[in-house]
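Board notes, transcribed. Complex of a protein with protoporphyrin IX containing FE.
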Amino acid sequence: MTTTTTFPIGPAPADAPPAPAHVPAELVLDTRFANGKIANDLADPYLTCDVMRSAEMPRIHFYPWPSPGAEHGSWVVSHYDDIRRVYEDHTLFSTKGAAQFQALAGETFPSIPLGIDPPDHAKYRKFLNPWFTPVAMKTMEPRIRATIGGMIDSFAQKGEVDASHDFGRVFPVRVFLDLMGFPFTMFDQFLAWEWDILHEDSLATKAAAVTGILAYLRGFIAEKRASPDETLGSFIANGQIEAENQDGKRPLTDDEVIGMTWFLWLGGLDTVASTVSQMFRRLAMDQALQQRIRADRSLIPTAVEEFLRMQPLVNSVRLLTTDLEWHGVQMKAGDTVMCFNSSGNFDEAQFDAPHVFDPERKANRHFTFVGGVHMCLGAHLARRELRVLLDEWFTRIPQPFRVKPGADTTVVPGLLSVRNLPIVWEV
Ligand code: HEM
């Protein structure tokens, strides 16, 4: 992976995949730095993405590399209003084909709920929602608090921890495994599979990981059918959903069960972990911010929202359902459109002083959980984990912490952001 802090925009290099014939050559650009592909060492790792909204940039350009949900490159929108249009108009911009890594392993089931458009989408959300409401989170909170508190206590007196690898990476995955009913013994294997699926370039490596996890999940589902329990995994494996003829309920089909279990595994496993590692990196590098939140815990909810805005992990892709001319660009049905949340979350047209971290920011309507009907199902869980984490941390480690001298603070502005983040405090 290249590490740099300057990103001149230029045409895509000669070895980039070819763009379709209807895409003007001058719009095919190398913007991988704004799509979480290139590490940098800036205190605000997304600062470089501002160039996406500069006068020298076309309003819409073409990104020739594949991304999850787009095998052949995508059109890219980077302005807040354009991104909002894509998320909110699900008739024009479909999620069909989204997160279909399973196709690499010859599977045909869709990812549920992300890969399903309205109106069908609503019935799956209705089925899953009770597990993710603020009320459900309140019930989960004591266990989340105990998991986090216990982990912090195990290193508080050492004056040092790798906040990314040994802490931030571990506790959210523990919470997620607990919720689903997956055994903790699968921790390392799950993360290895996820890494291969999301970050390895080789299609064979990705396909092997998909095959591995799906075989595991099918075995897990069979177990939960044989011995149901109180976990979300069991609820799905034995699930009943509204019948299409509105006449009561019917059991979920096998494709629906694996489609939901698989997508929850993919979407829920370590998104919070990546958020935690970037959050601690920022706090460790910004003593004034750290002190302000430590001194006034009532700021935690709005500060968490600001961390989320300032560190969007994913740029989402949609499938265009009809031909469309937009900002002077002719797109065709079947093209994909990618939303650079890495730019939209910093659009001055929507956010005052977007690069100032304001722990009290009001009406913080960012795209880190996207928008429209596919707004992240796990958003309340993620928020709750992050809030509890800050609260427990400042209670158990009231001393200021900073990056361990000499440590590498390189970050990928996207998923699996910081591998290691050693931080230190006085004991
Ligand atoms: C900070 C943590 C998280 C972030 C940044 C995040 C981000 C996202 C994003 C960007 C999407 C929309 C994808 C798209 O439209 O293309 C999404 C959807 C989703 N997320 Fe999350 N997520 C997080 C945590 C979680 C957790 C913990 C879970 C489950 C335990 C989860 C489950 C889902 C599901 C099921 C969807 C699909 C919703 C739908 O299609 O209706 N997410 N998430």
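The chain is about 40% helix and 10% strand. Residues 1-5 have pLDDT under 50 and may be disordered.
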